[in-house]
Amino acid sequence: MSQILASGAARKMLTKLESPVQYALQLGEQEVDMNALLGEQLELEHLGAINCVSCDRLTKKSFNQGYCYPCFTRLASCDSCIMSPEKCHYAAGTCREPEWGERNCMTDHFVYLANSSGVKVGITRGNQIPTRWMDQGAVQALPVFRVATRLLSGLVETVYKQHIADKTNWRAMLKGDVEDLDLTAVRDTLAEQCAAELAGLQDTHGLQSITALTDESQIEIAYPVIEHPVKVTSFNLDKQPLVTGKLMGIKGQYLIFDGGVINLRKYGGYQLELRQL
Question: Which SS3 state, helix, strand or coil, does residue 128 take?
Answer without folding.
Answer: helix
